[in-house]
Each structure stands twice: as structure tokens, then as C-alpha cells.
Amino acid sequence: MLTTYAVLDTTEAHRLIKRLCAHWSHKLTVEVEDGLGRIDFGESRCLLIADTEQLHIKLDCPDEATAERMHHVVFDHLKRMTKAGLTEPVWSSSNVE
After folding, report:
1. Which residue from 3, 41, 47, 84 has the fewest beta carbons nearer than 10 Å?
2. Average of pLDDT values for 52-77?
3. Rounded to 5 degrees, what angle do the CA atoms 10, 38, 91 make?
4. Strand order from edge to edge, sheet including 45-50
5. What's the whole-number mean pLDDT along residues 47-58?
6. What integer pLDDT is reported at residue 27 of this predicted model?
7. Distance separating the N- and C-terminal Cα atoms of the chain
8. Torsion over CA of 41, 95, 48 and 66, rounded to 10 degrees?
9. Per-residue pLDDT averaged across 25-41, rounded?
10. What is the fold, at CATH topology level, of the domain defined by 2-80?
């Protein structure tokens, strides 16, 4: 399993989590709590954590190709849902056996 992380600077993190989870709840299993969102994509999972100035993203994917695809899917959806522009995140990774 490949785990990747990114942090987005935004004061909209709580709102973005709610909107993104509501959007995907029609097709996927999602969980939303105050400042926390979990999205199950089947073979991949996404964890979103909000604080006052940032949105923390953790993606668990089966391989690097899937992780690259999921980076784009998640970020593209976040860009569409934000009121302010978002800067493309730098993803870091760790392999988990």
C-alpha cells in the first residue's frame, strides 16, 4: 500500500470537506464529522483533516499509478469547490507493507 500526503493552505478547509464528501456520497461510502472526512474509493481511501489555515490530505492507494490518478481526481474536485484559488500541492509518500 502506498500512502501519500499533501497540505493545502486554505481557510475553507471545513467547508471543502463537507462539500467534497456530500458530492461523493451519492456514489461512494463517505464519513463526515466536524473537520474530518473519509472517502472510500474501493481500492483507495482518502482522509481529509481541516484546521483553521490548512486542509491535510492522506491517500492510501495500492500502487503509484493509482496514487497519481487519485491525486488529480481529489485536487481537481477541490479546485472546483473552492471560492478562492488553491495552489497545486506537493505530495509526499511512504510505502506501507
Report:
1. 84
2. 96
3. 55
4. 29-33, 36-40, 45-50, 54-61, 2-9, 92-95
5. 96
6. 95
7. 6
8. -30
9. 96
10. TATA-Binding Protein (3.30.310)
Return the exposure string of 48-63: e unless at least 16 CB atoms fall within 10 Å of the residue's CB, then b: bbbeeeebebebbbee
Nearest CA among 75, 39, 76, 80 for reference residue 60: 39
- Cα 2 to its chain centre, rounded Å, is 15
Overall residue count recorded for the chain in this entry: 97
Among 1, 96, 16, 24, which residue's Cα sits nearest to residue 56? 16
Residue of 95, 43, 37 lying closest to 66 (CA atoms): 43
CA distance 1 to 24: 23
39's CB contacts (< 8 A; 6+ apart) are 20, 21, 24, 28, 29, 30, 45, 46, 48
Total Cβ atoms within 10 A of residue 92: 10
Q: Return the C-alpha cell found at 29.
A: 461510502
